[in-house]
Amino acid sequence: MENSLEGVQAVLDAGARFVEFDVQISSDGQAMVVHDDDLRRLAGRAMRVTASTRAELQAVLLRSESGATATIPTLEAMLALVARYPDATAFVELKRQSIRRHGLASAVDCLLQELTRANGRVVFISFRWRAVRRARQLGRHPVGWVFRPWSVLARALAFWLQPDYLFVRADRVPRRERPFWNGPWQWVIYAVDTLEQARALRARGADLVEVDDLPGLVSATSG
After folding, report:
1. 124, 145, 166: which is the final residue of a domain?
2. Mean pLDDT in runs of 10 for the chain (223 residues)?
3. Dmax (CA) of the chain
């Protein structure tokens, strides 16, 4: 299940060296690993993560389309799990709803405090370039910028920010032979669906590709 301890552990056990998960900041300033601010999709409840306390959130049971259930983990618990895999790196995305609710400085600083205490390899990432810039200025960890769409402006911002990683969705990558901009970053292409697509992107210059179901992809490939 997305962003659950069980789901991330399954991916790491399948051999992944990189994992990505999302963080929202609760009303009492706790970093929680969950994608949506509104919990209606995941829990069927009209409840917002950013307006709820850590205790209230940990009492919520999330349910996936397949019927699997999980609770919302703290970032501290998730990072402790990843630290058990010495070769693993965690991309930790600060969601825009938390930035809007708490303010950019408070949200970024809250996440950086957790990353500073982490024992494993961690990378701060965000769609918000201002958040990436602040994390770069204040943190000691690598940073990544997730951008959309593919444009001249995005390219200019990338060269100005100088992130360690650049993220873009697979369906936003131009179909030209080698579109990737040369820079000091590594390219991460996410929302990759098939092994064939992953191989094609790697051949075109992508450094890393992100899939939603690595254990399933490995199983289908080996079968």
Report:
1. 145
2. 91 94 98 97 94 97 86 97 96 98 98 94 98 94 96 97 97 86 96 92 93 58 48
3. 50
List of residues 6+ apart from 69 with CB closer than 8 A: 1, 61, 62, 63
Domain that holds residue 208: 147-217
Question: 195 is written with which tokens?
Answer: 């092994």
Tell me how far apart the alpha carbons of residues 30 and 192 are, in angstroms, rounded to a whole number.
31
Task: Please check whether residues 25 and 110 belong to one and the same domain.
Answer: yes
Cβ contacts of 55-59, under 8 Å, gap ≥ 24 = 57/26, 57/32
Instruction: Report the C-alpha gap between 22 and 221 in whole angstroms.
Output: 28
Rg value, the chain, Cα: 17
Q: Specify the number of domains making up the chain.
A: 2
Give yes or no for a contact between 162 and 144, defined as CB atoms under 8 angstroms apart: no
Q: Omega of the bond prior to 86 within 30 degrees of 0, cis?
A: no
Cα–Cα dist 185/171, whole Å: 20
Sign of torsion over alpha carbons 109, 35, 92, 157:
negative
What pLDDT was estimated at residue 213?
65
Mode of pairing for the β-strands spanning 62-63 and 69-70: antiparallel
